[in-house]
Predict the 3D structure of the following.
Amino acid sequence: MSQESASAANFIRNQLRDELESGQGASIVTRFPPEPNGFLHVGHAKSICLNFGLAEQFGGVCHLRFDDTNPEKEEQVYIDAIKEDIQWLGFEWGGDVRFASDYFDTLYEWAQHLVREGKAYVDDLNAEQMREYRGTLTEPGKPSPHRERSVEENLDLLDRMRKGEFAEGEKSLRAKIDMAAPNINLRDPVLYRIRHARHHQTGDAWKIYPSYDFTHGQSDALEGVTHSICTLEFEDHRPLYEWFLANLPVPNTPRQIEFARLNLNYTVTSKRKLKLLVDQNIVDGWDDPRMPTISGMRRRGYTPASIRKFCDMIGVARAASVVDIHMLYHAIRSDLEDNAPRAMCVMKPLKVVLTNWDADREEVFEVPGHPARDDMGMRKLPMTKTLWIDQDDFMEEPPKKFFRLAPGKEVRLRNTYIIRCDEVIKNDAGDVVELHCSVDYDTLGKNPEDRKVKGVIHWVSETHGVPIEVRNYDNLFQVESPDKDKDIDFLEHLNPDSLEVCQAIGEPALAEARAEDRFQFERVGYFCADRYALDEGKRVFNRTVSLKDGWAKAQKKG
Ligand code: ATP
Ligand code: MG
């Protein structure tokens, strides 16, 4: 099997298959639980492909549940964007969109239940004191002076916390587990904290909000989730996840399985850091084509299939690793190689005048939309006396192996004739501004017999070319691990050349491009018509990826 079609190992998929085949459990329910405090990024795509993918594969369902327990940081715009991204990737959640806040009433009843059982108490320690009492990895914690309050007092205080009688931070509800537990997560974790904040779903109904730990597993249980698949940082929380399930009257018992999160080099995947890039206007919003967000990748020209393919290629394991971003580039490149129609586009135009071509003569060449795809039909390339070629395809004093245009040298204009450069016109500053060339009319569809002409370059008619803006994107960061060093601000590693804008000229077909249409600009790369520009009356193409495949090459070398 080729590298390309191989999907990497996925231990969770294997485990689920074994379970289903051996008759443990009839069907699976997974969930994807984003917090609506930012846009989804490529790391989330891995989690989405895993959770929705497993449900798809094994005939189960995957729930979309917003993990909305931090009202101050969450917003409706993020909820909308997250739903759009998941659907764009091609996944469907089972049932309605769910919110952890749907369960606030039940969670509160369960908190009261723990209090009645003597397994939770209201504490007056503030955050700093709590940290002091908690102990360290090597030292046990010590009990809070409020740990032995009576059930009645605890119930009364909890009720008053809920009613908003206390200030933020004045009290909290904690589980009463074990202040000496080797796993610090079990040293009386906080279940509820006071927040006088308005919540995007529940409005002003609550003055207290449950912690992540007190919410997550219980929400899973309430929804009948069978496998709660999360990233490795929750491994140490698993005993707590299980403690709640064991100590509450939950309707069923989901199981937590952890996997390694996706890390990509030259990229940051932390919503907090991505938000900083947005808030400081370093990028043009969450969906800037340089952002590793799903919406950014979409605007850049990635297809849903390429992102799903990439997630398949990287596999699912427990060992943390860093994935080479060229693998992501490879995934989109191989998709577009097969599926993007071709077009010619001159990035930095240099004028060519065909001296032996009549001024009003036009010849139209019909060429395939894609060399291997008859279904893409033919496109028309009109040729006229004056053309544009790329400045990079001409050199006045070329080195030996330069097979493009140079004074006295010949080159083939792609799909048409061979031309020879007879004269170079310069402006007063000495810059080359125009080339006078002659056409060899005996070279259409055949090579001359008396000489070899190796080079083929692309071109566009001056009369029919379409002016477009091309945005060439490069990595947002210059170094492989921008956030590795704790002492250096990751913003110091920004790549100053992550965006280059060219005023280019494309072949006539580009005038008809609609938002998100993708093309291979021959000899250059893959480009996508910007989602928004057309509405603003501009014709803008974003470079998705260049033609050169560094990753595939490295694989071959092995
Ligand atoms: P961030 O660290 O970027 O803020 P998060 O984990 O806080 O991300 P959530 O909204 O809580 O963001 O994530 C939703 C789901 O996506 C979680 O199950 C989480 O484990 C998973 N996830 C987040 N980042 C990655 C990643 N880099 N690779 C794989 N899964 C991820
Ligand atoms: Mg999180």
